[in-house]
Amino acid sequence: MQPIKIRRLFRLCVLGMLFAAASLKPCQAAETIILVSSQETKDSLYGKWLDLIYTEAFRRLGYAFQYQGHPGGRAPVLAENGAVDGEIHRPDDYGKIAKNLLRVEEPSFSLSYVAYAAKPGIALQGWESLKNTDYAVEYRRGAKVPEAALPAVVKPEKLSAIATAEQGLEKLILGRTDIYIEQEAVALETLKKLDTGVFDASSLYQAGVMYTGYSYVYLHKKHAALVPQVAEVLKTMKQEGVIERYKQLALEK
After folding, report:
1. pTM of the model
2. What is the DSSP string of 162-195?
3. Do 32-110+214-252 and 112-212 show the same overall fold?
4. Which end of the chain is more exposed for a tag (fewer CB within 10 A), N or C?
5. How far apart are CA 178 and CA 195, in angstroms?
6. Where exactly are the structural domains of the chain?
7. Are 146 and 184 within 8 A, CB to CB?
8. 116 — phi, psi (to 5°)?
9. What is the mean pLDDT of the chain?
């Protein structure tokens, strides 16, 4: 091939590459989905497990994922206002009070709320077992399951809400309340953090299981199209055994 033809072919190749490069759109970062819960839940076994599950679920859907924990009842306010993309850990009937959130129909996993006591001899089973008792009962503010169930079975003057699980368990140990209601994994994680030099948790025990149900993600209605997609991904992950493996990883953490 003659040198002139070679140079001409080279120039054509260079022009072709420049044209192709100019036609490509710049790579855009993946959109981030932000889900929230209470800080206590985020720090618990449930929180570690949820973080693993939804990091993978949203990765499969082409999104980055961020899980935030917030104190008290701030998480539902952020989700309802659309400041974040939804709540990561709510019961099946949460949609009755959540105006702007849609439930992902496939649950994350099952969970239990447990009654903890320090005074000996307390035995409970379900919310109805608190009826006609004089126990001073406390729960964590923002925990919607006990918040909805307890007013129907506990006298108003005997019912109170506390900001954190740590405060709830400390008050129980000090005898300021008779019963503290909490998610089992949250309570067990919190007990590890108590100052044993000040708070002797050896007297605490599970007085009964009050509720067993499922944990669901609720997405803000602006993500309505994403709701069924997340459900399908969760089903696939369960079939693959991924979610159960993540539970083991969370336990190891």
Report:
1. 0.71
2. ES-HHHHHHHHHTTS-SEEEEEHHHHHHHHTTS-
3. yes
4. N
5. 20
6. 32-110+214-252, 112-212
7. no
8. -110, 145
9. 89
